[in-house]
Structures are given as C-alpha cells and as structure tokens.
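Example 441, ligand calcium ion.
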Amino acid sequence: MDILSVIEHKKKKQALTEEEIHLFVQGAAEGTIPDYQLAALLMAIRLNGMDMQETALLTDHMARSGHMLCPDVGGIPLDKHSTGGVGDTTTLVLAPLVAACGGKVLKMSGRGLGHTGGTVDKLESIPGMQVELDEETFVHIVREIGCCVVGQSKNLAPADKRLYALRDVTCTVDSIPLISSSILSKKFASGAKAIVLDVKVGSGALMPTYPDALSLAKTMVEIGKILSRPVSCVISGMEEPLGSHVGNALEVKEAIDILQGKAQGPLKDVALFLGSRMLLAAGLCDTEDDAMAKLQEAIDTGSGLQKFKEMIAAQGGNPHVCDDTGLLPQAPVIRPVYAKEAGFLCATDGVALGMAAQKMGAGRMTKDDIIDPAVGFVMKKRIGDRVEVRDVLCILHARDEISANEAEQNIRAALTFSPAPVSPARLIRALVDEKGVQDLP
Ligand code: URA
Ligand code: CA
C-alpha cells in the first residue's frame, strides 16, 4: 500500500480503510508525503466524500498525529468551540461562569483569522496576560480554578496544521468530513472529554445555509458517538456581530460587563445557552432550566466575575481590569457615527464589519502583523432597530482620525436600512446532540 493507491481508491469513490487513513495522516504529519499528493487526495475527498466511519477514523488519527493531552483536572474536561464569528466572545463569558458552577473548562483557542477575532488575541489585551503556557501549568490552573484559556500548543494535531494550510490554498476547505475532522481532532488532542460546538450559520459563516450547518452538526455529533466523546452542537445565526463590541480590548470589556450583570443581549444569551450544555454534559445539572438558573446565579452573586479574576491572575494578567475596565488599552480617538437617514436596520454585513475592524488594526492583514488591542467599535443598533436621523449608529475607537474616517465609511457601507419594519435576526436555531435535532424558536 502506498499513497498513490490511497488517492486511486478515493478517486474511485471507495471508502478508505483504517490503514490507508493512517498512512495518509502520518505522512502529512511527518512531512513524508509531498504537498501535491496530499492536495490531490484532499480534492478527491472534497469531491467524493467520506462515510461516517471514515470521517471518525480520520478524526481519531489526526488527533493522535501529535501529542495527546490526558489531563487530570479533577472533573470532566470540558471544551467549547465556535466555527467562527464576529464580535463572538462567548468563551470569555462562559468559561468563568461554568467554572463558578463547578465545571472544568480546558480551552485551547485560536488567534484571529481574517475578519473573525481570536480569543487568544482578545485575552492578550489584558495587561500582563500570558496565553502561551506549558501544559503542566495549563492543567494545574484548570484543576485549581476551573478554567484556563491558552493558545494551541505547537504539537497539537500536526496533521491538521499541514492539511489545513493546504486546504486553504486548494479550495478544499468546504468539505464536511474535512471540517469535522479538523475541528474535532484538535479538541480531542487537547484532552476535552465533552465538547459543545457553536455552529454558525449565515452569510460570512463557514456554513452559509441552514441545511449545511445542520449536516456539519450531525456529522460532528456522530463522530463523538463513534469515538465515545460526547459532542453537542448549537446552531446559531450569524447575520450580524453577536456582541455589540468588535475589537480585542472592547470585547474583553463587553465580557466583563456581562459578568458584572450590567449587560444583556444576544452575546449573553448564546454564552449562557452554550454554558448550560456544558454543565449538562458534565453531569453538573439535570435540566436545562436548572443549568441556566445556575449560570445566571453566578452572574448575580459575582462568582463568575471572581473566577475570571482568578483565571487572569493565574495567567499573569492584571485582575483589576474586572473592576475597572479603564485599565484595558484605550484608543486615542473615540467618536460616534451618526445616522444620516431614518428607517429600520434590516441587514448588517458581518464580514464587512469584521473587515472594518481588521483594517483599523484589530486583526492581522498578514500573518506577522501586530494587533492593536485598543481599536474597534461598539455597535448601538441591531437588525430590526428603528433609527432616526442623528441617532448614534456606533462608537469608533480608532488609532487616529484617518483610520476613524475610513472605518466610518466601511461601517456605513455594511449597514442597510429599510422604510418598513423588519424582524430581529434569528439567534439560536437548533440543538443537535445524541438525542437528535431539536428546533428552537
Ligand atoms: N475550523 C477548523 O479548525 N477547521 C476547519 O476545517 C474549519 C474551521
Ligand atoms: Ca473563535
């Protein structure tokens, strides 16, 4: 058996055997199979698919292509992952809340990619915060405090690193078996035993349509079943940024506002819903109502905010940002953008808003760019809101006037108004787990 026969079999739509999958994944991780053969196989998989058994095997072998963490955190290691959004800071809200309710949240997060923000970049806006910790420290913090959020360790699922980079440049990202195995292999390798996934649907999400999102969710739940690691998926809309704050320090501030009980809205709603699934997966609650009530109580009593402070301090950051968000980096130019026309906000181009923040310096334009933690904007209107002339649409936080003016133009171009009333965007649409699909109103 060699790589040519593996490509040949997939070209002819045959299911690959475990030996074939092992050969391909190992060769990808070790660098013994050249890019062109991997690329040919990826395209054959993209076009001809993989059945559930193959996809589970691929996930398992990718997870085991590097070091696998098997942490003793004094409970079930929990993880959550979002397929990518704008203004999506659920991790920073739910990790401390779940920890305050007794959960053990072991979270390896990514950096920003394109127009979407990365949790690790956001955390680094907290003065002193370390996100590159050795495994022992990472596990120790989860055991002691209940949550820790770090960057991905270098040796985590190396086969995925190689394959993902190739997929990115060969039009083979949009394959459900490849996406599922890519996401779950990293979660399994980082030691998570129960996983909650937020599958985003909408323009600009990885899955633009609901049937695709549902199919991705079902595949990931099924892989979890086969590999005995419970996976549940929440399908949520991404028609506009989830939170109102877009930008690294601004998103940390919004998470703190929610933990302080000062802010409501879709970011809090989705974070609590995902958090409730984690508490249920860990067996810490019996019903969804019970789980939601516990999480709200952690906000009301301040125990969630206290956990966030402890986590920040354990990771070398300044925990006082939780009492005074003015200690986070502040932009020199802060000014509103006013509406020029009246109407109802009927569409928000989330990708364009993410890109507007990226151009202000909140994200990287190239791999080696340095992020400006202070910049971004705070949206004051959501889809469905009535807007009058001179209403504040958003507040810009910019490095200088030129950048503020450019952002203003980009944000205006991303918003569409209609004279007739429109309904707010749908948020949490379905829950997919071992019991099946549950549509949510
Ligand atoms: N995120 C991943 O980690 N992998 C994919 O393939 C897509 C999104
Ligand atoms: Ca993310």
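Summary: Residues 83, 164, 173, 178-179, 182-183, 206 surround uracil (ligand 1) (CB under 6 Å).
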